[in-house]
Design brief:
By secondary structure, this protein is of the alpha+beta class. The chain is built from nine helices and seven strands, in the order ααβααββαααββααββ.
């Protein structure tokens, strides 16, 4: 999964090689890791990882935190800074919020929901043109995950028996969803309509979780 780094000035973007991008992606997904765990995750020595981390700290993208874990001195952990959120797609959130606020002020929340639903309907049609009807449940989930990932949601899916899960580690519409929670429910229903199965949401980035989690089961 490539990191869709799009918004920082060219000088910073050009300095982020593959290893630094991998570190950012892992920290985005895991929230925070010890230097040892991060080294294990990318299969590089701690000293090697630390050189990349120090550069990311200089750029204001990664921060060091020290956490107490049992007996002994606090251990170094690493996590992304607030500035790092600028590295990921946000679907023009400031413009979207302004438009929705205008609709809210002049027409009411019902019309805000209609605007969000209209956006979802457009996305549904675009996805449906790729997915179609006559494929397996697993293939539908796989294709939706790939489409969501291309749209900047850092999505992945897993299968356990008859249970499928989609995880999204980035939310380009986070600012919108924070203000209008209906956006999350609209997305869940869109998934149900595309997949033709029951979709439940148990975790949400907007609620402070590490990722948005959708569980798909047969028998909608």
């Amino acid at each position: 999964m490539d990191i869709p780094i799009v918004n920082l000035e060219d000088g910073i973007v050009s300095s982020l090689g593959p290893t630094k991008r991998t570190i950012i992606l892992i920290l985005k997904k895991e929230r925070q890791l010890s230097l040892k765990d991060l080294s294990n995750a990318i299969e590089m020595s701690k000293m090697g990882v630390l050189k990349h981390v120090n550069k990311l700290v200089e750029l204001g993208i990664v921060q060091r935190v020290y956490l107490k874990e049992g007996v002994g001195r606090p251990r170094l952990h690493l996590m992304l800074t607030e500035k790092a959120s600028e590295l990921f797609p946000t679907s023009y959130s400031e413009i979207a919020i302004s438009i929705l606020e205008y609709i809210m002020k002049n027409y009411g929340r019902e019309d805000v929901v209609k605007a969000l639903q209209n956006r979802a309907d457009t996305t549904y049609q675009r996805y449906f043109n790729v997915i179609g009807k006559h494929i397996s449940l697993e293939k539908k989930v796989q294709l939706i995950t790939e489409l969501r990932d291309k749209d900047g949601y850092m999505a992945e899916f897993s299968v356990s028996g008859s249970i499928f899960e989609i995880l999204k580690y980035n939310c380009p519409l986070l600012d919108v969803a924070s203000e209008y929670k209906e956006a999350c429910e609209i997305e869940r229903r869109m998934f149900e309509d595309l997949i033709g199965a029951s979709v439940a949401t148990s975790h949400q980035i907007v609620g402070g979780d590490q990722a948005c989690k959708f569980t798909i089961t047969l028998g909608k």
